């Protein structure tokens, strides 16, 4: 519902918002442009993050790889790279544009809610296409529709962090949302592993539609900002500027963006091909591989969540973001080296758990850091669209880089080269945070 002035009546049960509430040190320094929200808003926000991760990451991380493992075992790595790369191109184009259009939306229901609603509906259409796809081009088509739909929803949800959530609790909200995303990764992998191997549609419909429900809940529970002033006419130059922020003028934003891009590339390089690594490098039969992947992700996520909540609290208490990013990048490199050199599944799992803990430390401050270097809150949707691009662009870059890396040496696909690249990306991402001046 759209309501710029009045909050809904309060209930009696404690909420996530109460858990995070603190006195503001100085009046006016922590205001957000959004309207007062109903009691359960932060809970709905975190659940929406959970749902988006469940829908998007499960499909590209578990469902599509499983489909290719059963339909084209020898070419599965190439098939996945092609699918992910094309989907990455789509996201690269639409994410900043949808963010700008969301900022300009004058619908009676608000400027974010229409994008949450229709984005989720379109994403569900793509899930149905994937559920009954067999040929590569149909898989690509379905994934493109999913990316376009849920990409719109994702842009709106990211913009709400600047619209509706105060700076003093932003890192902790980000930590809770990231922890929810980690849990979604477990739930999705377990769901796909539990579905019958001869019922392909369940690999997509069950996690995809379940995740979509939480986006709908946020749509109904949000008191959105209703824009009443008509924006200036959108020119072609405005559209082109949607994809650009001057890296010299907005230097801190540029370095935070590069940090997020490189760290995400490191994680995608491992997560996107994890199922294939389990099958080809660790020798697990494809019929059992999804279950092994789910077990690894459970342990990965336990470390991830613990570190996310711990460092989110530390960051908000100390006001420091940069040292946590540096620590997480080095810890991730250690975990990836252990996984790369692992002689068996036990040691490999230990390495993946360390990577999960490192990722948890990073995501606890990631979104908070990005929102604190935004050029302006007025164009938060557009600017956060560019922020989202740093997360989505690796879906294009990693598959393109993976194609030659997997071919090194001939014969079987070279996952060692891909892991080495992941280590390099992660370390460079940590170093990229050092030049930032306005955030400690």
Care to describe what's here?
This protein has 440 residues and is mostly helical. It has one domain: MFS general substrate transporter like domains (Growth Hormone, Chain: A). It is built from 16 helices and no strands. The protein has helices spanning 16-20, 41-71, 76-104, 113-131, 136-164, 170-194, 200-221, 236-241, 251-271, 274-280, 286-318, 322-341, 345-372, 380-392, 394-407, 415-431. α3 (76-104) runs parallel beside α5, α4 (113-131) packs antiparallel against α7 and α9 packs across α15 (394-407). The protein starts with 15 loop residues before the first helix and ends in a 9-residue tail after the last helix. Mean pLDDT is 82; it is low at 1-14 and 22-29. Residues 41-440 form the Major facilitator superfamily (MFS) profile domain. The chain crosses the membrane at residues 40-60, 80-99, 115-134, 140-161, 173-195, 201-226, 254-279, 291-312, 324-342, 348-374, 386-409, 415-436.
Characteristics:
440 residues; mainly alpha; Growth Hormone, Chain: A; 16 helices; disordered N terminus; membrane
